[in-house]
User: Fold these one by one.
Assistant:
Number 1:
Amino acid sequence: MATGNPNLATLHPVSGVKISTVSAGIKTPGRNDLVVFELAERSSVAGVFTKNRFCAAPVTLSKQHLSEASVRYLVVNTGNANAGTGEQGMKDAKATCERLAEIMEVEANQVLPFSTGVIGENLPMDRLLNALPLVKSALVEDGWVEAASGIMTTDTRPKGASVQFEYQGETITITGLSKGAGMIKPNMATMLGFIATDAVIAPDVLQGLLTETATKSFNRITVDSDTSTNDSCILVATGQVEAAVINSEQDPLFAVFKAHLQALMIDLAQAIIRDGEGATKFVSVQVENAVSQDEALEIAYTVAHSPLVKTALFACDPNWGRILAAVGRANIAPFDLNKLAIYLDDVCIVEHGGRALSYSEADGQDVMNREDITIRIDMASGEASETVWTSDLSHDYVTINAEYRT
Amino acid sequence: MATGNPNLATLHPVSGVKISTVSAGIKTPGRNDLVVFELAERSSVAGVFTKNRFCAAPVTLSKQHLSEASVRYLVVNTGNANAGTGEQGMKDAKATCERLAEIMEVEANQVLPFSTGVIGENLPMDRLLNALPLVKSALVEDGWVEAASGIMTTDTRPKGASVQFEYQGETITITGLSKGAGMIKPNMATMLGFIATDAVIAPDVLQGLLTETATKSFNRITVDSDTSTNDSCILVATGQVEAAVINSEQDPLFAVFKAHLQALMIDLAQAIIRDGEGATKFVSVQVENAVSQDEALEIAYTVAHSPLVKTALFACDPNWGRILAAVGRANIAPFDLNKLAIYLDDVCIVEHGGRALSYSEADGQDVMNREDITIRIDMASGEASETVWTSDLSHDYVTINAEYRT
């Protein structure tokens, strides 16, 4: 299941990026499961990666290559995460980069590898290496839609977003893809995200932009609280629109570009929640007027991870007591229960430490029947606000994750 | 569903305790849903209560009465938690104590009230007050079995444990009840627990015994990470066996008594996990050789709460990568991945940062097919160990919690 509009947006090509999507048959014969991005020379590349201590071999190698060389290729396979695979996993990730570099006549450390799928199994290197020679002739500028499908695992739909805007007479494009539906509580990035622009952006500025916008997008979603071993998000600036230059945060284009990028990143992150495993609801948990950002996030995630809140959402049950109980067990400093107020969309459900006087079950039911629901928690104790996006906990979530490996 | 032996143990009466179980029809007409314990004069009474900030009105009032007076009665209703009910909830809890005190000819603050059931609805006081006069004539010494059923909510079976032991020629009895199946991650106590002994124990020693043994029993279980608003656990020493005296931790009987009490408390706590909502597995998560108790608990709970680990357990799928990913995202200081080892029962699944060389899928499958499974995580970095008990995440969990209020 999934929520919202299933249709993929128009994805504008980004000058300086070519994409090839081919079949290596890693998990399923014939499936288009191998995606390669070719980046123009002198592109700036920034990355954010999982904080899971058991990060996968490709994550370790991508971080190393990104720090060493000028990146020209991203190679992504689905069907196998190459995580928890020890030394063999690192050998396989390196061999993948070396073979693609050989074909494309670049150095191996100019290739960043990414893998997603089952944890703990070795990559089928014979099939992967056999497919790499197919990549070169399949590179096209208009390959974003095929790539969005090519990186899917338990996703039920491809995810992409694209924006074009005029700035001082120049048209700037930003286009991105994301994937992910389960094992989703990103910590620096989503499962996988690839975003490119044709603007000219200095590497350190690009890294700052990615870190900041990922924090307020991919790092604010959770399906099931399980941070993946493979989360990676890459932002590329190909520099093909030579007049659109961002060398520092003081450049006038910076704020405009950042706002567009942030909107696109949120769109890609929310798409993961809308396609969350078994999702029937898209839920925004907004915490307002908390003492600190940390406190606001702790409350928001405690509510967003509560199995009892999530099953009530699945049941369209306005069981507001479960929301109150989750707020009450959040690991925060003491606060004034009587000042706190909780709303379902515009319906106040809790005030003065108990059920709101104005609340009626019919009003609560009316909100819970909606597909998109906002749980708003006003702490009335400070000025910090945070929003986290999540899905409900349904039978399909259990089915998908009880059957995924079989 | 539930795991383990469904039969209730023999529950020995405790001299100085009489119990009455009657019907108030709070949620279901005719259901025996009101339980009253009568304690002998001069009994010592200790309590531990939820740390959920939205603790229910009866929890607040019980804590107050316990600090004020010599307790003679515990009154427990199921079907309604009287939580999130604001001022009216406190009025209702007080009225319940006052009416029972009037009938029994004691002071109102000699009565401790307990409620369990749906959060956020007012108690049906007319039905509750009408039933209280039935209590007095129904008091019996041999009422533990009926009481165990009387306090159930979504529990599928009554839970009790009892031990008798000889000490210096005297027979000492400890008998206890617990209830709970969902909204279970106790923080000081389980949903509800009532334990009594006929020994003579000084109040401060009794409180210390309860706090310490609850920490290693009810505070080490989790079904769904949701700490209840109503968790309460009461330990009573009626002092009827006058030769069995514990006035301090130096009394020879102290260590013997404490060990028996700890065993009984663990038994009652594990019974909650065996009856966890939708449970098909009883899972012990043991963390060994961690740097600190806090670190060991953080790792154990991260694994025990992971929806992906829990659905893999439900599916009997030896998907050890999900366990490794959960350990990797635990919020602890950096550690040496290569030293860590993870076992399913006696099968080593992870060592040297990846799948153990000796591991075979058949061995893993053999363990996962069992009903009782131990996940053992050896951090090889310190001397602290902790064990947490949990259940799996099944379709029945979702069904129970999506349908509970309807």
Number 2:
Amino acid sequence: MKTYNNPAKNTWAAITQRPAKEANTLGATVKAVFEDIKENGDQALKNYTEKFDGVILSDLKVSQQEIDNAIPLVSQELKDAIVLAKNNVEKFHAFQKIEKKVISTVNGVDCWQEMKPIEKVGLYIPGGSAPLFSTILMLGVPAKIAGATKIVLCTPPSKDGTINPAILFAAQLVGVTEIYKLGGIQAIAAMTYGTESVPSVYKIFGPGNQFVTAAKQYALTQGLAIDMPAGPSEVMVVADKDADASFVVADLLSQAEHGADSQVILVTESQKLIDEVQIELEKQLAELPRQEVARLAIENSSAILIDSIDAQNELINEYAPEHLILNVLNEDVYLDKIVNAGSVFIGPLTPESAGDYASGTNHTLPTNGYARMYSGVNLDAFTKKITYQKITAEGIQNIGPAIELMAAAEGLDAHKNAVTLRLNSLKK
Amino acid sequence: MKTYNNPAKNTWAAITQRPAKEANTLGATVKAVFEDIKENGDQALKNYTEKFDGVILSDLKVSQQEIDNAIPLVSQELKDAIVLAKNNVEKFHAFQKIEKKVISTVNGVDCWQEMKPIEKVGLYIPGGSAPLFSTILMLGVPAKIAGATKIVLCTPPSKDGTINPAILFAAQLVGVTEIYKLGGIQAIAAMTYGTESVPSVYKIFGPGNQFVTAAKQYALTQGLAIDMPAGPSEVMVVADKDADASFVVADLLSQAEHGADSQVILVTESQKLIDEVQIELEKQLAELPRQEVARLAIENSSAILIDSIDAQNELINEYAPEHLILNVLNEDVYLDKIVNAGSVFIGPLTPESAGDYASGTNHTLPTNGYARMYSGVNLDAFTKKITYQKITAEGIQNIGPAIELMAAAEGLDAHKNAVTLRLNSLKK
């Protein structure tokens, strides 16, 4: 871990430079797969699944029987943990509903917004060594609360054609309406166009490798929406002199174990803490199963000594971390100043992993500086707001003349006429 | 205007087909302009402005002197109209602020969201025959309410190097922080990368021609956000048998006059109304300055007789109109069923032009069926929500064991360890 002592502001960008993202060169591959699936539907999906996942499937859809058979394979204690997490995620996201509130901007002009569901959504859950059932909670629960009528889940099958039982348990728990054994580009293409088996959706959510990311970008060009641009995960830990170095290191490593391109940054006023962290880092790394990956990430990462809290806040906002841990006793000197962050974890007993799994907040968050302009996934991401207005005779008399003038000045006479006719009807 | 009598559902998509969007073939042009501006800054901007706008500028930025000189050129009555509209837009968008509300998902686990501004935003206002000052209100007012510190406006200069006075009046009224004489691809590129004169921003808003649209798409690939995908404007008017045909026609033409690719659709249970509308259409068209454009749009458009209100609602949701006018006496049979629409105008005295200018709702809305998954521009569009959590000893004891189990099951040991260390510290 590189260390810096009160670096000059004009060096911050270089110090906190995120690992370079490879240019996306998968465009042609993605386009070819999408076009094949658009034209050949299920047969193309089965061909790609055979080719890339090494499985010959007769049915792409997971049957109720398969789900019923899988659920007893999940231990009761893991089920209880998932249910606890689901309940908290549900509470926090249900709490984000907005009530219809009407405002009369002038007498006779009532305006309001209402939250409505995105009716059909697609969730992508990667395969690989570990089953990411937690992401199913983070995406499926708000989809359900929003009121989606179709919640489609795609996840690649194992070599034996099955899906991990914990994935199936979480999916049925949150109310996923259908599950398909599909991974990679073909999963995203199937949900974009729809096939004989797989329905098309309006918006696609979820993490994935470079192929999935490129496929989601392509889906955007085909008229779908996606959750947000993807990038490697990152955490910034701000710690005061009283912070426990072992907590700090465990939090840094929680991020570092995600991948070699993860970035972790420690910001502190305490040189002593930095020294302790360096020692503790070696200790914890040595015991970590994913230490090889974590070591690569740590090489890209920095511990930055900054004496001034104001300067620390400036650095936080400039970096715009996906996860920000404030391992400090006095968070108030930070909270009001923070404008750019995905999710903020406050105090020594609030590890990032709480939000990753079970506190209730969402773990799908803006990376790569996108916290400057994107929210993490929340209820908003599964809804849109429709605006409404209802105008009375008094209302149109109050605002009509202004509309006529403005429309005329913009050269839009039909716009003006729509008001004039109504005002005239009221003069009769 | 084509007419249809209770068409079968499987023909709806064809009947309401939006005018085909030309494939974007401007990619190479856009990329070249962006790269030139990234490398050559202001000088490249001036070259493009000379080439495309026919103006040689010494300063790209509009000076305070220019603004002061222009304001007296706007008539007092137009100023008053703009101020009235601005006040209403301000009321409606300020009303969309959310208060911080904390929920304890379990004892000791407090979670909340806070709305924070997107600090730097760029607004693009097209040039051309009519000055679209109303769009400045729609974008500048929520930017200001959100708390943006930089609100950059780009708009192309006239041949004499000036900007329309009504544009300058609206810009200073809403609190735009700086105005540049830039149009087209070069404006979007300048706000993407920043130059010696023009600051870079995080998110770009505003309408534009195919060049601007392609440039905004390219800005997306360069790490910026944009308001939403662009498409031609559209309105669906649902009218009952009591609707005044002249109001219906004026509303249809308000949309049709925007462009030949605008789409307008009438849905009604009344054949009599359709007949009256056809006659009235000719009458109003004959008097419309932009009748040539409006006629082309009307050719692409339909009047659809549908007897059943349920079927009407299905069609509305399938089409997902940008603007939906419910020119009916009993709106209740529609409102609860509508899931997909941008902005809804309720009752005979609520023309779309009210929302275009002065009622307070926003006129930047999702076109092309994007109302299925996008909101129109609102306060959310200029903000993001940060999530926060603070966990006590009791809290981590309540959720810690579940996190340990889930993290272990996902193979993420450092995530587990971040909790284990904290739980252990509490046992001491």
Number 3:
Amino acid sequence: MPDASTANLAINAERLWSNIMTTAAFGGTLKGGVRRLTLSEEDRRVRDWLVARAQASGYEVGIDRIGNIYIQRPGRDPGRAAVAMGSHLDTQPTGGKFDGILGVLAGLEVLETLDEAGIATEAPLCLVNWTNEEGARFAPGELGSEVYVGHVALEAALACRDAEGVTVGEALSAIGYAGTEVPGARRFAAMVELHIEQGPLLEAENLTIGVVTAAKGQQWYNGMVSGRESHAGTTPMTLRRDALMAFAELALAAERIARAHAPDGVGTIGMAEVSPGSRNTVPGEVRFSLEFRHPDPDHFGRMRAEMRAEAERIAAARDVTVTLDPIWSMEPLSFSPDVAATIAQAAAARGLPYREMTSGAGHDACAVASAVPTAMIFVPCKDGISHNEAESATLKDCAAGANVLLHSVLALAGVSHHD
Amino acid sequence: MPDASTANLAINAERLWSNIMTTAAFGGTLKGGVRRLTLSEEDRRVRDWLVARAQASGYEVGIDRIGNIYIQRPGRDPGRAAVAMGSHLDTQPTGGKFDGILGVLAGLEVLETLDEAGIATEAPLCLVNWTNEEGARFAPGELGSEVYVGHVALEAALACRDAEGVTVGEALSAIGYAGTEVPGARRFAAMVELHIEQGPLLEAENLTIGVVTAAKGQQWYNGMVSGRESHAGTTPMTLRRDALMAFAELALAAERIARAHAPDGVGTIGMAEVSPGSRNTVPGEVRFSLEFRHPDPDHFGRMRAEMRAEAERIAAARDVTVTLDPIWSMEPLSFSPDVAATIAQAAAARGLPYREMTSGAGHDACAVASAVPTAMIFVPCKDGISHNEAESATLKDCAAGANVLLHSVLALAGVSHHD
């Protein structure tokens, strides 16, 4: 049950929006986007801003060896593990104002709102900025959260190099964020990450809140069709082994399979290169990328098996060779039903229209979920556009998400009535 | 009816083959192909070889202002227009030993065979090397033959520049082939061009001779599909406007249309570029080439109309924009039925298995046909491969083609029995 003394508590929407616009200047681009690559000078400036703000409020600030920033507000019961909030401050090379940083600034807003209202929580609250979620300067992404849960070894993470050969370790030292805390040492009771949806569903259905209960499994392939080059004018259709036409059939098969596993299945071919690439030559080879995603392990497995069967069928029917090389995969992941239920309850109590949904993209929450009960809150972004300078979200939706975050962590941490 | 005194006349197959191998050294590549770009030093060398050979036999050699070489053997009746044979000596940048030059060397072989046998023809015979059939160094191709028939103005042709800015006129002077004869001044009664098929039909049907009765019309398009870029993980299939999937449907529609206009219709997409070309982004745009060819004007028109209808249907169904920009076309062309019948008769009389067929590619004969009764002889090439260093044909087939050429021009020019 919501607590009577906090039921009407709300974050300061104007202050949240002002913080979003202020931080968008750290790496701000002419087109209204943000270029704030991990551990760059722009990243240092936004980190310094966040730390200064935290210190001004008297919160404890810890930095771990991979540069994750922990901003902790104490609870009444120091024996309880903290309830975490957070996301990331880094962006894509031509990113937007909301991806990642919304979850961090909303967490800061939660802490400051509680201070102003004089509300103490039973468990401590901890706002986290995870290092290098994007993976744009240093690969792989979700580096700080993966190191936190122990999926990636600290030494390996520190040795990752950018295109200029600079390591993560060197970059951390250069901007003053090579901390001393051991990643994973700080235990959390739960984590809630607020993020823009980066997809069009909430907007299309006129909903404000997505309660993210799962993340889609992902299977990436490098594909190739090998047929036979021949003269476009002199080779009859019946004697062709046209790699491009076989590829076209494969593409439509992938689409058909994804559609058959509706509504959550997706299948995408983002890249294709046609050889030899001459107007008058029947293509002999097409190389392409293919990926499938689905949140349900059974559907996910069937999509992959169906694609293999289609590839074999098309190869045989057209006398071409089709290879699908599985280069990376992530199994479907379920977030904590308890944390998700808490989020749904917070949305319902605020009268905010919401739906359960799955995340199609990877997030720090996906990594953290393997060690900590975790779920996510999505808010709409315009036209589903993200990883783009045109990325856009409204003050109203950002504030609604921050309020759901506030009441979710209050429920998870517990509110004291002893004051 | 075949003339008794010439019915068993045959060219010297070994000499023809030896000439093919000798001339393949002018621009010969390590992989066994030939790089002999129009009006290059290699082209000069092969031209000089041909002219020296012609002069040694006492033939008249004329060079016109576009560099076409005419090698004429006199007839008994100087009032009759010459019967022409010929093709081209230039090659693609990585071409083979047979494309073009077979038709020139077979013509030389015809002249020398008649000399050795002491046979005179009523009409003169004229072997022609047409300048720049390939269009690889200077565009467009079939330049010498198009100037001959007046489709391309001489001054415009001489002003064409290669990638280094050298004009055709400068290149002709540099290799000593800027002649003085006016292109088109030398009239022909007929022309026969022997060429490798550059396609797989004769080989597939185990035939030796193709009697080429027509050349396919060609329609070239630059195509574009514009959809909407979106996130591959978060955009449901139902909300996508995927340019690549629309392109795949267009490709298969083009294939279906070409197949429906069997056996002569062909449709090819040789080039496609996908934007933005990121593994995790639903493509927003695909640019591609498309071409259709058919020898029959009615079918040719219907193919184009059907493709337009398919493009409109797919664009509407997928909420994308499809544009098909017609950048070049050539109407279907019928060769002379009389010249084709003469070729068929020559093949039949030699017991060579033949079929009528259409040319899918452009040739000098296509240009000349607008002014002179013309047809072509095709012989098989291995796997239909051409414009490739692996281009290959057999001594037996080359000789068969040259014998059909011999007896075709004897029939067209008439044989004298007064000696």
Number 4:
Amino acid sequence: MLTDIDSLVDRLAEGLDPSDIRTDADTRSEHARDSAPFCEVGDPAIVVFPRSTAQVQHVMRTASRMNVPVVPQGAQTGLAGAGAASEGCVVMNLREMNRILAVDPANRTAAVEPGVTTRELKEAASAAGLAYPPDPVSFNDCTIGGNIATGAGGVCCVKYGVTADYVRKMTVVLADGSLMSMGADTVKNVAGINLMQLFIGSEGTLGIVVEATVALRPLPTDALGLLAQFPSTSSAGAAVAAIVAAGHTPSAMELMDATATGAVSELGHPDLVDASATCLIVESDAPTKEEDVRAMAALCEESGASRVTVGSDSDTAERLLNARRMVPLALREKAMSISPTAVSFIEDVAVPRTNLAQLIDEIEAVSERRGVWIATIGHAGDGNLHPIVVFDAEDPGQNRAAQAAYDDIMSAGLRLGGTITGEHGVGTLKKEWLADQVDPLELAFMKGVKRMFDPQGILNPGKVL
Amino acid sequence: MLTDIDSLVDRLAEGLDPSDIRTDADTRSEHARDSAPFCEVGDPAIVVFPRSTAQVQHVMRTASRMNVPVVPQGAQTGLAGAGAASEGCVVMNLREMNRILAVDPANRTAAVEPGVTTRELKEAASAAGLAYPPDPVSFNDCTIGGNIATGAGGVCCVKYGVTADYVRKMTVVLADGSLMSMGADTVKNVAGINLMQLFIGSEGTLGIVVEATVALRPLPTDALGLLAQFPSTSSAGAAVAAIVAAGHTPSAMELMDATATGAVSELGHPDLVDASATCLIVESDAPTKEEDVRAMAALCEESGASRVTVGSDSDTAERLLNARRMVPLALREKAMSISPTAVSFIEDVAVPRTNLAQLIDEIEAVSERRGVWIATIGHAGDGNLHPIVVFDAEDPGQNRAAQAAYDDIMSAGLRLGGTITGEHGVGTLKKEWLADQVDPLELAFMKGVKRMFDPQGILNPGKVL
């Protein structure tokens, strides 16, 4: 084994700077996983940090010749385990390919390397008077390569869509090191069969994105918003339905269940008066935002809200949305209160919007049945929920209970006509669930696509399929 | 051959009503082509009109057992020849599968069979207070199955996107008659590799859509608009750029070159005072439409418009947009004036928005060089142009000149960083051009996808690839 690694390092060094090829235990350990719990993680043999497309090609050519698995990795913020190392693999971390290649305001596009963070792209767009909307919670750190690999979403999606909607053009390195371009520089393109969308959300199993051109939009104005507190999930669900039925297009529509509200309320938030409320935070960045927010506030009241706070300026709206942003901190506090070894695990499930309230109720029932603490937040306008399970990872009983709760939530989502993942991906965590959602024939063809692009099966093996 | 056809008819009759299996010369001739000129057309052996998914499956099972090519067909409005029969094939016309299965206002979706026309879907959505935006010019007749097969667009796309953006879920019958479902009922879904987008725009080469669930949107209010007349394409192009740069999101942004303007002007239109102007028609359906239209009118004037007419109410806006809608009639008149056997042929090419004015100028140069009459209209906001060539199809010289002009326009589009088709598809017409646009490796994988889904090569053979 050792000789193999030495010989692999030697071959990699023919194309990469030796300092970008790491075999030390610290680097290997740092790059062994992403941010998903529960998933099997192996010890990578080598971690490489390519700095150019040619270097990515060299790594893949070398790996395919030596039949070594390669796990592509970005900021390691993934929540489904697609970035977790397999035993003896080469982890290819793309953070060093982080140049913004072009911002074209007249065509409203930007061309970037995969290691550019979502924040950096947003800032570059903003400097040109434009916006790149997709905003996964980890946008400060996560990379565009990872966003494309997972098909990432965020708070904005209810109005502005997901990562897949923004990719115009893409260059990938395939398993054998060859380079392939897809897409076009035009707004519309229907020339041939659309292979590009295969790669978006394929979690590094089909190829490695080395360059992407994304669409940008006009910069929206600051949003106004409201925070509504409801005595029940059903009344909050009714408000979501009423807002949609009235034809509103909010720029954010976030929900916090009573447990999440309680946790944030313990930290203290000036507007969260009822710690047991289900909260809905709705924003509008439309030119008519004042009247939109007033109308949506009225709909919340009609749906049974016990209290509605309207942000009459963007600072107040910011403060209201902050209740949602405080959730991670509140959960860390919650975890600490459970045990020093407690962790929080964020789930991702989506159902048709009309089944949202029922899913929240089912998650509450799961929490009670399994005896685990679960707070649910989510993108209500998309029917996309993130139940967050907090449990002591060192306690075998709690670990089992958390896993059982996770399984129950997946089942409930599918039973309610939903999907096992709206925006985080399948990774290693949901592989077994995929067969419960998709048509067996479709699954067989997904595997056929994988074989077509990676006949040796060296690209992120064991992920997704 | 005759025996084969008889035996094929017998087998088809095991699953279809005999009256839905037609071999008469009239039916065969009526269903031999779509609306594309220049393409090779064969005489189909049989035309079938299945009425259910099971019948589509029966046709495909029969065809694959007997190794007979099948050409799926809708309203025959296609402009690239994907619906043209090949010699001895079975044409499967899906117009009889035309039920609207469900409209779900709370989830903003509709489920339809493939033979539903775009107009019928729009009306069903509208009856539920919602909109299905995609609006190809043929929307009165063209079917959703055809829209999905071609990845159809329209006037609305500049603000509301294309057909591919609206498909949530799809069931297809594959070449061997098996049934496969893809997608989900949720707004977001990243479970597994996205095979559904392969089928959108694949022009019937991978499978036959038998059911689709599409997203609907809130019904926009009536648009206001303006008609600006420019002394040159470059000043019209500057106006497009200025409107985009100012962050406007028009709901339509249509362009007519001087030749198209002249043709409409001959029919008579109250607002077209200068028959040699390049015209830009811009609409807004935003809540701020009054001020948007005023601001965009000012930008047109600053860019050098010789005259700007603002539609101060929706009736006037309608009248202005009518200038664009009069183009087909004006072209029929133009064709008649050339010869009783003259036809008009609508092209489809798209470039990055910044190259739009240059492409229009190049098309004018092509018209002069080749000695053919070409009027250009297009979706300016998307950089998507439709040059329309009017020529006498019976005159060999004009036929050759028209084909040469077509080739020149494709070349110019590609040279300007564009695509050979923004929304009409490749069909048979642009097959040879596809290799000039896409990466050879991508083309090889497109063929791999085709082989994977249709190893016998019986589904719409010779189209696209």
